[in-house]
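Figure S7 source data.
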Amino acid sequence: MKVGLFFGSFNPIHQGHLIIAQAVLNQTEVDQIWFVVSPQNPHKKSKSLLHEFDRLDLVERAISDNYAFKSSDIEFKLPRPSYTIDTLVHIAERHPTTEFKLILGGDNLEQFKSWKNYNQLLDYYGLYVYPRGEEAASDLWEHKNVQRIEAPVLHISATYIRSCIQQGQSIKYLVPDEVESLIAAKKFYL
Ligand SMILES: Nc1ncnc2c1ncn2[C@@H]1O[C@H](COP(=O)(O)OP(=O)(O)OP(=O)(O)O)[C@@H](O)[C@H]1O
Ligand SMILES: O=C(O)c1ccc[n+]([C@@H]2O[C@H](COP(=O)([O-])O)[C@@H](O)[C@H]2O)c1
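Tokens for the predicted nicotinate mononucleotide complex:
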């Protein structure tokens, strides 16, 4: 089996994430996409970071209608902050017959060389990279283990969604209905 690993803070998950995941399923050999919720991105500090179990809950609601999408809380049990190479080695050890690829936005490709052991991620696993706005300036596009995914660029971000909520604006259509209703019921991000 081939699995695409989509790592993220998912604070919260939104339609941009889901569209990318579906594009990877459509355009590659992967059988499943696993959404790996990161409790703490090593390069991000956010005052409005929702508790990891709540973010996982939102992810599970968002993907429940797609059998090819799975959620993972594996990083909750690993040391923090979450370095992707450490998680990947851990996951790969537990699934020795599964082939893993990393799904990455163009924005993350630009800083990818600052990631822990990025060469190992490239050489042992490989990347599916999709555009996110302006073309990422990186020589890594030429790497043999980097495959470009064509997907519509949606300028939705979790930051924008959180700011809509704080301003009392609706987030309908930006997130799946099930995500919108849980955020409203639990008064997240207010
Ligand atoms: N609209 C989008 N289109 C394509 N990729 C996206 C989009 N939003 C997020 N991503 C990608 O999804 C992954 C996880 O992103 P993350 O959970 O941090 O969402 P975000 O919207 O970028 O969050 P924030 O605004 O809080 O920084 C990252 O690789 C990011 O590049
Ligand atoms: O491993 C690293 O050095 C590293 C550096 C920056 C980001 N990451 C991971 O990249 C993923 C995407 O982050 P985010 O917050 O943009 O969703 C998330 O799982 C982070 O832990 C990983």
